[in-house]
Amino acid sequence: MLLCLPSVARSDEVPTPNFWDQRQRLGRPEVNERPRIRFLTSVDYPPFNFLDGSGRLTGFNVDLVRMLCAELDALDRCQIEAKPFDQLVPALLRGEADAIAAGVAVTPESRRDLAFTQSYFRYPARFVVRRDAPLAEPVGDRVAGLRVGVVRGSAHAAMLSAFFPKAVKVEFDGRDVALEALKRKEVAAVFGEGVSLSFWLDSDAAKECCAFAGGPYLSERFLGEGLAVAVARKDRDLAQALDYALGQVVAKKGFSELMLRYFPTSAF
């Protein structure tokens, strides 16, 4: 399924979608019996988790964890520790932590050992075009017959073929190569991962040449289920408690606040 997601919240003209059905009514969980809730994250995935200039652990996921703990009245009992990404799941399964907030992929294989909250962030695919050659809506129709750059062998290349078969797919060995081709007008658009493209649009490399067109486009088949907090499979009660807290953060506009803080140019 391909979903073109409309923006559901806006502040200062920056779209801030919430991936949460606010019609849900989850009961408030009780976590007071837990002496602490230990979260793991990593430091190599900005803007979601990284070390700032003073060496302080920060990022979208880190701030979200603090908001979740506050909603559970457990802020004084929450701990956040950073480890290399490949050590996160083994540490959780050894009982050295209670949850992971670091983008562990939600797959049938990972579900054998882990339980997950509902997804709180999904990665959109986007078209980027030159500002002097915009594409009017519906962009899906407008790309027919146009040369569109994609990264060779990527999920976005497969997604472009599946959902925009009339576009002329031009494959490149990397995203930056494709974007340089766009700047030189060798392709009419580049189709790729929206979050990284949003930061490129703000960068010196882009030189304000380009902008998003159409979308955003979501597809679990090609892009996965997005970001969720992982817990040990036996600890589903904690996942349910965190789901409740996520719902409260969204309802109180905390999620929109995080989106505005960490994504100056919205990927949505």
Key words describing this protein structure:
268 residues; alpha/beta; six-stranded mixed sheet; five-stranded mixed sheet; 9 helices; 29% helix; elongated
Structure explained in plain terms:
There is one protein chain. By secondary structure, this protein is of the alpha/beta class. The chain has nine helices and 16 strands. It has helices at residues 60-71, 88-93, 139-142, 155-163, 175-183, 194-201, 220-223, 236-251, 254-262, and strands at residues 3-4, 10-11, 14-15, 37-41, 44-45, 49-51, 57-58, 78-82, 99-100, 114-116, 125-130, 147-151, 168-172, 189-193, 210-218, 230-232. Strands 1-15-11-14-12-13 form a six-stranded mixed beta sheet, with helices on both faces. A five-stranded mixed beta sheet has the order 8-4-9-16-10. A hairpin with a 5-residue loop joins strand 6 (49-51) and strand 7 (57-58). The longest helix has 16 residues, at 236-251. The chain is elongated, with a radius of gyration of 20 Å.
Radius of gyration: 20 Å
**Helix segment tally:** 9
Strand line-up in the sheet with most strands: 1-15-11-14-12-13
Q: What proportion of the residues form beta strands (DSSP E)?
A: 15-25%
Give the termini separation.
18 Å
Order of helices and strands: EEEEEEEHEHEEEHEHEHEHEHEHH
List the helices and strands and how they pair.
Elements: E1 3-4, E2 10-11, E3 14-15, E4 37-41, E5 44-45, E6 49-51, E7 57-58, H1 60-71, E8 78-82, H2 88-93, E9 99-100, E10 114-116, E11 125-130, H3 139-142, E12 147-151, H4 155-163, E13 168-172, H5 175-183, E14 189-193, H6 194-201, E15 210-218, H7 220-223, E16 230-232, H8 236-251, H9 254-262
Parallel strand pairs: 4-8, 4-9, 12-13, 12-14
Antiparallel strand pairs: 1-15, 2-3, 5-6, 6-7, 9-16, 10-16, 11-14, 11-15
Helix pairs in contact: 1-8, 1-9
